[in-house]
């Protein structure tokens, strides 16, 4: 930043020297033109002198046009510095209570108020220089304040470690210090950008002005004119005018060298002070960044450990879920096996019951068959005996044989009904029929 503004100062100075050189050359040409007009008595000679007047007018107009452009550049330089200065002062008034910083914002001499309605108003470069100096001085004071506050915050951290509950207060102070430091560095970045723009404008303008100046010097051919003037000793006034033009052809230096050195030294000191404060704040920021990085690394390590623990817990949960699922599957399989075993046992029991029922049925059928045969035999013998007795005892047998037969038939029917199955046997038959029907259904399935 200091080098940029030094370049701006040097370019500004060289431009002003060239303008001074052109002005003196124009004055010399005007004096030369006046001399020739006075020397010419007739109109023919004065008519030839008009070309010299136009040459002077052309150089004058060219210089004035370049001056207007230079005034625009100076106006913009003053505008940028003045607006930045006012912006900084407003920020300090609203946010900083430190008396030393406030005093730096109000110099002994006030600056000219800038008006946007006058874009071509000329401002002295000394005011631009003072503005630049005051801006760097205010920023340096702000950075020093931040440095002092950071030292205080470090002490407060010691109190926190000792168990004093001032964490919120310290956090607020750190935030405010960080805000002031960032704002001060932002102001410096603004100033650097303005210096870059101004140097670019001045360098471009200086190149155009030097070209115009060199063309004027080449056009007038100062060295040849000065040699011819020394040979012609009859006219002392013409020699004096040409010598004046030859003198201003070189670089013109003005002002006191001691004053310029003092200004440069004071400016360099202010800028060095600001740069030292900036470097100090940068070092402190780096230290803070390292501490923050360490804290972040610790936080990351803790976060990784937590994630690993969560992952392990998730794996354990999954393993437990799998074990529970396996246990549930085993229980289901056991239940299925038990149900299958029960079904098999039931089937076996049913088969045994059926076999027993079949055996009992067969036994009952045999018993029934045997009982039916014996009953029939006894019935037949009884009938025969009754018939025989009737034949012997009853004298009316032959005539009432049909009645006897009719009496025997219901006996036979009753006996045949009695020869039927008992209620228990009927129940067994019904059960057997139901079992046979179930077997047939299973066989069909």
Molecular structure report:
- The chain is mainly α and 445 residues long.
- Helix content is 87%, strand content 0%.
- 16% of the residues are buried.
- The model is unreliable at 223-244, 248-257 and 383-419 (pLDDT under 50).
What is this structure's SSE topology?
Layout: H1 2-39, H2 43-95, H3 99-104, H4 125-161, H5 167-220, H6 222-231, H7 236-248, H8 257-393, H9 401-418, H10 423-444
Helix pairs in contact: 1-2, 1-5, 1-7, 2-4, 2-5, 4-5, 4-8, 6-7, 8-9, 8-10
Q: What's a quick, concise take on this entry?
A:
The chain has 445 residues and is mainly α. It has 10 helices and no strands. It has helices at 2-39, 43-95, 99-104, 125-161, 167-220, 222-231, 236-248, 257-393, 401-418, 423-444.
Secondary structure tally: strands:
0
Please describe the biggest sheet, giving its number of strands, its sense, and whether it closes into a barrel: none
Radius of gyration: 67 Å
Count of helical stretches: 10
Helix-strand category: mainly alpha
Low-confidence stretches: 223-244, 248-257, 383-419
**Residues in helix, %:** over 70%
Please trace the helix and strand order, writing H or E for each element: HHHHHHHHHH
Mean pLDDT: 75
* Strand percentage: under 5%
What's the end-to-end separation, in Å?
104 Å
Q: What general outline do the C-alpha atoms trace?
A: elongated
